[in-house]
Design brief:
single chain, about 100 residues
């Protein structure tokens, strides 16, 4: 097993322990003190709108390719995970790449 894979397993194990701890906390205390159970892999909050729509839903719904999908992803999450300007620069990079790929044919 590679070092990277074992770190991933360790991280997954720690996440499981944290979720179990949060669940136990939530069972013992009133609603106002409950801890949110965030899943960083399935449905992370930085890719979800207030209505519950996710970036992946938009990307798949419009059948966007890799470059345009990433462009949309970074625009939709701008400022929710990282610095908004950094996310917008990433979106711009992918958009420029998509334009370049389409004009160089």
């Amino acid at each position: 097993m590679t070092k990277r894979a074992s770190m991933s397993n360790a991280a997954a194990e720690k996440l499981g322990v944290l979720k179990a701890s949060a669940s136990k906390w939530n069972e013992r205390f009133p609603k106002e003190l409950k801890l949110p159970l965030v899943d960083a892999v399935d449905h992370p909050p930085h890719y979800k709108s207030a209505s519950g729509l996710e970036a992946i839903d938009v990307i798949e719904g419009f059948a966007l390719d890799f470059q345009l999908g990433n462009c949309v992803k970074y625009i939709l999450r701008a400022g929710k995970k990282n610095d908004a300007v950094e996310d917008l620069r990433k979106a711009q990079w992918y958009l420029n790449r998509a334009i370049s790929n389409r004009t160089s044919r």
